[in-house]
Amino acid sequence: MNIIIGQQNCGPTCLPRVSLEEASQLFTKLYDHKVDQIKTLVGYVTQNFYIKTSSHGDTQAAKEYVFKICPFIYENMKGLTDVSIKTMLYMNDCGIVCPAPVKTIKGEYIATEEVNCCRASPSSTSKKEERITQSACLVYTLTYLPGNTLEAACPKSVPLPWFKDLGQYLARIDKALMHYPHVEDIPMMTKQGQNSEWSLNTIPRYKALLYVAQDDTMRNLIESVIDEFDKEVVPKIPQLRTAMIYNDFNQNNIIAKVSTTKDSKDVDQHTLDIIGIIDFNDICYSCILFEIGIALAYMMYIQKEGDRLAACRQFLQGYELSISLTKTEWQLLPLCVAARCVQTILGGLYSYEQDPTNEYLRSDVEDAYGVLKYIRSIPSQKIVKYWRGQASD
With helix as H, strand as E and coil as C, how does 117-176 read? Predict the structure, then answer.
C-alpha cells in the first residue's frame, strides 16, 4: 500500500525479516543488556519483539521491553519516528501511561541498522518466494507496558458502560495533544496528515487500490464510500478543527485489565481498568473529526456480539464530557467511520498480497467489512440522531 497511497513514500516496502537470535544479538549490541527471554509480537509492517533482560544479583533487576525494527516506508521516516518518541515522553509527563523510549549505549533513542529484509513479489504466496536482502531499518526500544490489549481482555464484546470510559480516555489524550509542545514539528506532521495512507485525508486516493477487492459487492460498496467522502468531506476539510491527533485508537493499542469483585449479593461485578496506550506511529496533525471517526470504527470492530451503535453512543458521551463536537463534525461522523473501514479493508488486502504470511491482516479485513456493511445499511441522519440521544432506536 505504501507505494501507491502516500506521496512521501520512497519505493517498495522492504519488510524486516529478523530472527529471534538476530534480534537478541542486535538488542545486546545496542543496549548492553543480556537477553533472558525473547518472543515475536504482532505488527503491521514493523517487526516487534518482546524482550526480558537478565537480572544481575542486587545491582540490576530484570526488565521488560518492546524492541522495534521499522522499515523506511517514508522518506522522512526518521523524523516521524522522532516525533513519536517525543510524543511518548510528553504523554508520560502529562500522566498518560504509555511506553517510555529507551536510549542506546550511545545515548540515542533511534538507531539505524542493516538487517535482513524481504521484498516479496505481489503474487507470492509463501515465504519461499521472498527475496532476502540486507537493508537499513530504524531500530528503537520502548519499555513494555504489562497487561492485556482490549482485544484480548474482551474478545467478543465489551459491556456498554465501558465505552464511556474509553471515550473519556481518548478525549484525555486529545486534550493533551492539543497542547503538543514541539511546535517546530507541526509543519512535518501536517504534511504527514495530508499524505499518510492511514490518514482519512487520503481516502480519495484509495480508488487506486480498488482492484484488490475482487468481490464485486465489496468493491461497489467501497467505491460508493470513497465517492461520497470526496463529495461531502473533502470540500469541508479546510473549515474543520485541527490538532495533533493520535490517529489509531484501536482495540490492540489499548492496554486494559478486567477486574472482578463480588457485590453485596455475591454477584460478580466486572470493571475495566485502562492501564495505558501503546503505538504512536500514526500520529499526525489533522482533523479532530478524523480522530473520532477512526476510534468509532474500531469500537464497532470489537463489538462483535453487542449493539454497535449503542457502543458508539456511549463512547461519544464519554468523549463529549471533555471535547464537544461541532454540528458539521456530527453530520460527517458516520461517513468517516465508513471511510476508516475502507482503509482497513483495502490496506489490509493490499498488504496481505505483499505479505501472505501475516494473518493479523486478514482478521482486520473481516472485522472492517462487517462493520462497513452494517453502518452503510442505516441512513446517516438516523445514526447521528441516535448517537446524539435524539432517538430511542
Answer: EEECCCCCCCHHHCEEEEEEEEEEEEECCCCEEHHHHCCCCCCHHHHHHHHHHHHHHHHH
Measured between alpha carbons, how far is residue 88 from residues 81, 97, 107 in Å? 11, 9, 17
Strand order in the sheet with 254-262: 148-149, 254-262, 268-277
pLDDT at 130: 62
| Alpha carbon of residue 268 to chain centroid | 33
CA distance 141 to 148: 19
Cell of 115: 538487517
3-state helix, strand, coil in the chain (%, to 5): 45, 20, 35
Q: Are the C-beta atoms of residues 199 and 286 closer than 8 Å to each other?
A: yes
DSSP lists the bridge partners of residue 255 as 149, 276
What are the φ/ψ torsions at residue 302 (nearest 5 degrees)? -80, -20
Asked if residues 210 and 222 have their Cβ atoms less than 8 Å apart, the reply is yes
Q: Model pTM?
A: 0.89
373, 221 contact by CB (below 8 A): yes
Residue whose cell numbers read 515465504: 127
The predicted pLDDT at position 378 comes to 97
The residue among 142, 86, 127 whose CA lies nearest residue 276 is 142
Strand partners of residue 136? 114
How would you classify residue 389: left for phi > 0, otherwise alpha for psi between -120 and 50, otherwise beta?
Answer: left
Backbone angles phi and psi of 339, in degrees to 5:
-65, -40
Pairing outcome for strands 47-53 and 35-41: antiparallel
Amino acid at 100: A
CB 56 within 8 A of CB 67: no
- All three cell numbers of 58: 542486587
Amino acid 171 reads A
In the numeric block, the cell 532476502 is attached to 132
DSSP secondary structure letters along 163-223: HHHHHHHHHHHHHHHTT-S-GGGHHHHHHHHHH-TTSGGGGGGGGGGGGG--SHHHHHHHH
How many other CB atoms are found less than 10 A from the CB of residue 389?
A: 10
Confidence at residue 391, expressed as pLDDT on a 0 to 100 scale: 53
For 301-355, how does the pLDDT look when each residue is reduced to its tens digit (9 = 90+)?
999 888 999 999 999 999 999 999 999 999 999 999 999 999 999 998 988 787 7
- For the chain, list residues with pLDDT below 50: 1-4, 6-12, 121-128, 393
